[in-house]
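Hi all, long-time lurker, first post. I run a small reading group and we've been trying to get comfortable going from sequence to structure in the token notation. Rather than ask abstract questions, I figured I'd post a concrete chain and ask someone more experienced to write out its structure so we can walk through it together at our next meeting. Sequence below, copied exactly:
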Amino acid sequence: MALDYIFHNNNVAHYDDQIQENELTVKIKNATMQSWSEVEKKNKPHSLNEMIEDLLKKKCEGNKKDVNYEVEEKQKEILRQKLYHKRERIAQEGED
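-- Answer (accepted) --
Happy to help. Here is the structure in token form:
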């Protein structure tokens, strides 16, 4: 985005007034652009990766609040341990 700062000072009788008005115009345009830049930064959409990470965090936090989450996690850990022990037994039987 660009701002135009082309001023026509054709009126010689009011030249000083026109110069002052031009300076004020520049100030107001710059202030407007500064405010607009802040609004754009604030409203800038997140990248796809950030959106996915946010969704996964929310899902994980939601699951942790669920009463069944802890029970399911314990069951998964027990199954992992059983599978690990079963693989160890199979490996030992294969060595014998």
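A couple of things your group might point at:
Residues 48-95 form one domain.
The two ends are 77 Å apart (CA to CA).
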